[in-house]
Specification:
- Residues 1-20 have a biased composition (Basic and acidic residues).
- With 81 residues, the chain is mainly α.
- It has helices spanning 3-24, 41-47, 50-53.
- The protein contains three helices and no strands.
- The chain is elongated, with a radius of gyration of 28 Å.
């Protein structure tokens, strides 16, 4: 047998052993799924008072959330809500 034939035989033996173990293993439970977000972007935007909205930074991230820091803040990071 050549080197490649030996490697192929070892790989097939490992695969067969893995198939035996998976068949004998008990069924696993699925991980719980997080519930979807209940508030939409429009509802969250409505919660911010209109008078305060003018004083906020207003930077938007990729998911549509807006920064709640004051306009022109010195911090490098934004605070989203």
């Amino acid at each position: 047998m050549s080197k490649m034939d030996n490697l192929r035989a070892m790989r097939e033996a490992k695969y067969a052993e893995a198939q035996k173990r998976s068949a004998a293993a008990p069924a696993r439970l699925k991980a719980p799924v997080a519930p979807p977000a209940t508030k939409k972007v429009e509802e969250r935007a409505a919660e911010v008072p209109a008078a305060d909205a003018d004083d906020l930074c207003g930077h938007r991230n990729m998911s549509g959330r807006t920064c709640t820091r004051e306009k022109g803040h010195a911090a490098k990071s934004h605070r989203y809500s």
